[in-house]
Structures
1.
Amino acid sequence: MPTSAVTLALQRIAAMVLRYIYLLRSSWTRLLDLIYWPAVQLFVWGFLQLYIAQNSGFFARVSGVFIAAVLMWDILFRGQLGFSVSFLEEMWSRNLGNLMISPLRPIEFVSALMIMSLIRLAIGMLPVTLLAIAFFGFNLFGLGIALAVFFLNLILTSWAVGIVITGVLLRNGMGAENLAWTLMFVLMPLTCIYYPVGVLPEWLQLIAWSLPPTYVFEGMRALLMEHLFRADLMLEAFALNGFYFSLAVIAFLALLESARSAGSLLQSGE
Amino acid sequence: MSSQGDRGAEAFRGLAAALVSSWLPCHMSGSQKLMPMLQVPAIAVDQLVKVYKTTRAVDGISFALRAGSITGLLGGNGAGKTTTIAMILGLLTPTSGSVRVLGAEMPRQRYHVLHRLNFESPYMDLPHRLSVRQNLEIFGRLYAVEGLHERIVSLADELDMMEFLDRPVGKLSAGQKTRVALAKALINSPEVLLLDEPTASLDPDTADWVRGRLEHFRRSRAATVLLASHNMAEVERLCERVIIMKRGRIEDDDTPQHLLVRYGRETLEEVFLDVARGRGQAREAAQ
């Protein structure tokens, strides 16, 4: 019986995921790298929160806000990094040409990168979440269903950014590698991870509200400080994410076509 | 250039081969059987042009490769060989002209045929940390190879890779890596195989061995092979037809024997030097 196109597509996605799992299994340094930095972040912000809580009644009442923020930021940042680094592995190993002449389609490649972003995130974040419970008594999973909504919104943003970076890498080669490591940091001050949007100047608030993670971090603070789940914020975040994700896919396909025209797929150097 | 008569004879042979093969049920895939085989060459390049900003890398070339043939693509650095191959593979969009591979227009219809092609080049690598077996498994899955584990073992046996099948690719010698790259290129038993400098940087013994394996594959699979190379002895030994490119154009296109006779030379290397140094036309004009 002939195999259906969907089955073949799923097989190719599975093949790419397997390729990255083989890579992670072969390199303990890569695995360590996934856990190391989130753990460092957790301890820095966790101890800072303990110190502030000891000296401020307000922060003593809302313990966990900084830790939750740093863990959420890591979902956003590590989600994108997991996506982009998996793609960069192909450029570093000069394997991109082999993939581009294979039956693997761009949408399947992107799907595999999204799955890998989740796997890498799980490897990095699960131990750190347990460390947060052990050292600071903060249980991220205690956020319940809200955590799932926050997570979904953050991961969608991280994928949208990752997809655009991948397109730029395809078009411009390794010269654009730094984008993979730094682009997300542009969002850091604007998405108001550690402070409310109201702190920003009014004109900057407009930009902040155009970014989906801002809604998540505001929603997180509302939940932890006021015990209020802001469904309205989450719906707006989903709508924005849908818009940005579609835009990212369109940009990726345009950059891929441009790379095919400029001959960038032939070389993966600078 | 070959005469009209030669081309007619070649076209007739291609037609006859296509007629015979269209009756053979054997190993052919469903999509291959559906293809109208009578008039479709394995690769058809028509008035192909590629311009990068101000450089014409490929300048209006045309050729057709009969199914089951093996053709050498010769030319100095910057002659346009790799650009041509990239357009055949759908990696590069032509500025104008067309490329059809197994009847599919490239790059627009590339996914109709990519599972029936493959490519090997020393400018591409396989992931170094993965073992040979893992790499072949990944590409076998991407190409939806049936009976993959048996296929890997059979390739390993055929290409003498058994002893390092479970070793990471990064820990292999240059010769072993070439064999692995060849195994990757053969994993899907391609009907069209494109090779860019398949024996570059190999010692003569290993290079000779690789040529032997390529000959064997081509004969057993009746595959169409296009081989870009700087190694004239290699082209002379393997190819039944040679296309010589210079500055993005086809300078000559004939069988190795005819080229030797026409240029009054004993080796293809001498013919190549004549073409590269612009002595080809002068010699023909003098005759």
2.
Amino acid sequence: MVRPDPGSFRDPASHVVFHEGRVLRLFDERGLEAWRALSTAPFFSRETAAGRIIESTPVEDPTGTAAGAVEHPRLPLITYPYEWTFGMLKDAALLQLDLLEEALRDGFTIKDATPFNIQFRNGRPVFIDMGSFEPYRKGEPWIGYRQFTRQFLFPLLMHAWAGIPFQPWLRGDPEGPTAAQMRSILRGRKRLNTAALLHVRLQARMEDRLRGSAVRSELRTAGFNAELIIANVRRLRKLVASLAPHPSGAGWAGYQECAHVGRDRDTKSEFLEQILDGGHFTTVLDLGANDGHFSRIAARKGALAVAVDGDEAVLDRLHDSIAGQPIAVVLADLTNPSPSLGWRLAERPGLWERVDPDLVIAYGLIHHLIYTASIPPTSVLDWLREFDCPVALEFVTPDDEMVEVLTANKEEPELHPGRTEAEFRSLLDGRFKVESERPLGGGARILFHLIPA
Amino acid sequence: MSIFGYLDAGSGSLLLQAILGGLAGIAVAFRAFKSRITGKKAVDEAIASTADEPEQVTEGS
């Protein structure tokens, strides 16, 4: 059975379908013609071999309706820009610019510029939308410039220059801020920066003045050419490469290695390794992954580790140090993960619809959900049970010093039942079976290997 | 139908690219703007206000 990818429909020339576990891109006549030309372009072969463009293999069209088809390797996890760290969006932006310049030099262009065309594979960005490449027509400007500024440049600028995280904005509006909105966001000396004057203020002004005007034929007649796009792309590349997270941005300045993060790490690692050695795990979901210590263990054992955390600074460091390991970084607040978004609420599925783990790590996590976020312990366990796989869980009793810190300003009636060891064990009944357990910190904390009941 | 038809590129953003292409681009922009009666005035104003007196550009103008 052929199932269309609900996120691939905007371009009439090609779209993605799933067929018997395979990922296929189907072309219409125009898309097929572009693909044939593209497949002979030197940059395309070079960048595909380098892993910066996803591999494509011509195949028979199983639907019999398309003019042609190629197969792509299936990526184990799809993530979206609102789940990326600053460094990830920056890496994606640089890839987009590099590929555009190389394409132009070989007589092609990229007709759009959206981070949704880029995914991360073992920490490195890979361009996944073959349909975006088109032969360059003499005199054409870069059609994707405005989209590049809204979905790459402005989100990075608002993060780097104004200290405003881009993820909530992109989650609310995946099209990204307009130039006019960006003009309102930038304050102080940054407003007078050359890049701000040109890409933000002048663009906002010209968009306003020239709305609806047909300008492409005039540009062509006036001698516009690919070299002008390349000059712009090179300046943009230099600008993007120079950007760093704003030091006062949430989570960046205050981040410090916390002593409790490393507590009993050896015992917890050993406990996890025993679980991993006892089975074959393809996808390990590390909830509250922090610096990715346990994700690395899972990756070393051959699984894809999905490292989820809400702390952007710590995840950005993890992203920088993945170096080809099978670790997927996902920035998410576990109490408010990415919902389904877009057209018919199917275009961008919610986070948990995209992750299918066969082991969940919940170390140093549930006491934050229970005490900080006031999630009832029953609900925490129901949620973990929904993953329908074993869980390596650290339970923290009310006697633990961390809990004393978390409850310093809370009184008993403000806390949910199910927090004591006895209560927690009774809540496990019917949900999970305890496969093994190990006390930590003199019994104030317990490691559980849980199997779905 | 345009090969790029599914994406709205924005007229102002397209013309801006000539300016962003550097000196050679500004010459192209000038030639393109010359053929526009209204556009010439608007863009000349935009360039002048941004290059010379950026603090004079008011929000929403």
